Amino acid sequence: MDILIYGTINSIALAIMALGFALVYGISRVPNFAHGALYVVCGFVTWSLLRGLGLNYLVSIILAMIITGVIGALIYQFVLIRVRGMAISEIIASYAIGLAILEGFRWWGFKGMTYTLPVFVEGSINIGDIPVDLHRVVIVGICAAVVAFLWLFTHYTRIGLALRGMAQDERAALMLGIDSDFMAVVAMAFGSMLAGLAAVLLLPLGNIVVEAGYNVLILAIAVCIVGGLGSWMGAVIAAFLIGFAQILTVAYWGAHYQMVVALLAIIFTLILKPSGLFGRQKELEERV
Amino acid sequence: MNNQPILQVQETTKAFGGVIAVNRLSLDVNEGEIVGIIGPNGSGKTTLINCITGFIKMTSGKIFFRGKNITGKPAHKIADMGITRTFQIMRPYYSLPCYKNLVIPLFSPRAKRTGGWRGGGKLGDRDTVGIDILEEIGFERDSFVPYKVASTLPTGYLKRLELARCLALKPEIIICDEIFSGLSMSEIASMVPLIERLQMDGITLIMIEHRLRELFRVANRVMVLNFGEKVIEGNPEEIMADEKVKEVYFGSEEVEEVMSHA
Amino acid sequence: MTIEERRKERLDRGIKVRTDGIYAIMSLRELSYLTVPRLVLIVGLLILPLVMPSMYWQRVISIVCIYSLLALSFDFLAHFLGLVSLGGAFFIGTGGYIAAILNTSFGFPPIFTIPISTLLGAVICTLLLLPCLPLRGVYFAIVTLMYPLVLARIIEALNVLGGTDGIYGVASFANRWIEQYFVILMVLLFLFGMRRLVNLDIGLVFRAVKDNDQAVRASGMSITFYKAIAVFIASAMGCLGGACLVHIYMWSGISQFALDFSIIPIAATVIGGAGTLVGPVLGCFILVPINELLRAFGTFRILIYSLILVAFIILRSEGIMVYGQRKYHQFERWVKI
Lengths: 288, 262, 337
Fold this sequence. Notes:
The complex is a heterotrimer. Helix content of chain A is 72%, strand content 3%. A two-stranded antiparallel ribbon of chain A has the order 1-2. Chain A contains eleven helices and two strands, in the order H-H-H-H-E-E-H-H-H-H-H-H-H. Chain A is mainly α. By secondary structure, chain B is of the alpha/beta class. Chain B has a single domain, classed as 3-Layer(aba) Sandwich (Rossmann fold), CATH 3.40.50.300. Chain B is 37% helix and 23% strand. Chain B has helices at residues 45-53, 75-81, 98-101, 103-106, 109-114, 126-137, 155-167, 185-200, 212-218, 236-241, 243-248, 253-260; strands spanning 7-16, 19-29, 34-38, 60-65, 68-69, 83-85, 173-177, 204-208, 221-226, 229-234. In chain B, a hairpin with a 2-residue loop joins strand 1 and strand 2 (19-29). The longest helix of chain B has 16 residues, at 185-200. In chain C, helix 2 (55-81) crosses helix 10, helix 3 crosses helix 9 (223-249) and helix 4 runs antiparallel to helix 9. Chain C is globular and about 80 Å long. Chains in contact: A-B, A-C, B-C. At the B-C interface, helix 2, helix 4 and helix 5 of B face helix 7 and helix 8 of C.
């Protein structure tokens, strides 16, 4: 029973980490290797606003997420747009920016004390007879709400539909008058905000450290590959698969095998079904 | 020379999601003949070729080459067996000179096996062999053209280069995907003898074409496709006279013109 | 009326024939036009350890050469095959750990560990990278990015192979001259070897795979197979570097999976001139000494490289060697009419 609960919580955490990456890749086909960096950025900004400037927690969170979104948009607008289409340069550029941010933080940002964010709600409740932090319950709730919101947004609003159109076929979207550059910036902003959301939800469970950035990047990529690069539904389902696999591994083998699970998941997916669970077949075969 | 068709396509179907591009198509190709495949745009011709040559996995159906089942084999294995193809959207290796373009197919296992080119050894010097093949295909020997980088050449030469790439593999079947497209009348006129010579050398050809007049001159048999299905099959005269074919191409001026000259 | 009796003429006018890459050489002077740059490079590299003022700098030269091997492998994979390797550290770490284990657990001396770990490491790296080779380039980048990060974490978490402390007591080279000249010779060997390789027939197949892999498939060759060969060669270079590294430092640890080894080859290639194979080596000679000097400042240096890298990419700068080669071919001299 506790496996069920911890599994669900872990899976939801993975899902929220991965959604931002899946969104950006699905829409603009750019792998955002700075995803982990944006995660850390948001955590750090929240902390600065909260402890440094003394703002209200909720205000700090919202401001930090917006700032992260803006930073993501700026990264796209000033760097990635210029290398759009040149696959090698795109990859190198986004990787370099991610590194720059993360290593910059390691050098400048986090020094001395440990940085923590407070949990949303103190206390715990008992599900069945297993104590669960209320904060974790809140995480599940918020994530479910976010997924529902995203689904509604991309199905019922103009911008959302435009994003979906771009994800399916960029040229067709261009012909229908959708400005793909602008949409890509929007997608990047959304993806960054999702990374930020993941940060504010998950960082209170531990400290804010730069390593978390790399971990998030690894896990997000693992989830997206298993689910199929570019598929949002796939990312959610893959998150559950990997999340439960990790918890099961912890239960039967030990906590330190978690990363191995992520690596094995990637390798198995690439060997068995490279396009992932929901990846589109077209991805791997060029139009001949 | 036995009577079994060299290539048998049985009930091939390919669906992309909800769109059925090729619908239970069957085709037999006999050794040494030239088969034309015609049909309006979107009738599934290129998809059929992709299925036969292994670039796309079929949804259902079987393909036999000399009696051997080659369904589902990867593209490079099918090419290795002797079924080669050209591409509708031309793809030379743009950054390399023309004769170097041929080094790659000459490097393949099939070329190493069949060998037999001039130049000595199993394969000789691939550069020289490349120039030889280009001469066979119509590039002028001793001109600078074979040495030019492929990106600077006009379409006529590039089409021949595509054929040369197939020839380097000493193929048994060449599938030409719209090889006459983009060429002027005189360029096509000079390609036709090349096609006929390939047939005389014993190569079986399958040609997807839109240029019907030229195709009908060389083809032994023609198959008409529409919406992924075979409409009719027969020799060029039968096709030209058929009512159903006219329906398929209804309104196309070129076909009207060809038909009226029948 | 005076007629100008001399005019400017490009140095390579008599030498370069109709096509790129074919030279007609008719005199010693023209021969020297082609060979002097290469001789300068070779002689320069060979003299370098002799002129270095201190042991510290001599060691830096060795480290530069190891990074050069990595940068060569990155340039080769990225610009001749289209595979971007974001994790050079993966090769270094694999080669390094294998060498360390062979040395400490099995007692092999460096003369054996280095060749064995080069080959064995290349086999292991190629096998681990095999699943992503049939797929598009993005997957290769992702997987090479992940391997060093994940492997480092696994070693740390499972506490195998020495865990966070690493493996101590690895033997060093016989003497420091061997230590330096070995890596220098390796760099020269691989540099000229790779430059030759990319113009051989198999090198053309590699370039074709990057240019147009569907056509390669249609010619009856398996692109996965050829990519695997290329990855084998590239990872052999990296593993060789890693093996040399552990023998120089006499220690092997997870820091070999560190980001230095991932980012510096990329930065060196972009700055030095991608595609030339000499450029990355030059880039390493520039970047690595700076890297060693800046070590005191913590990871600030990685921030700087990353930003410089991004700047170069955004500005689509061609890199030093590409610019240099272009200009070298454009040198002019006065010629009597």
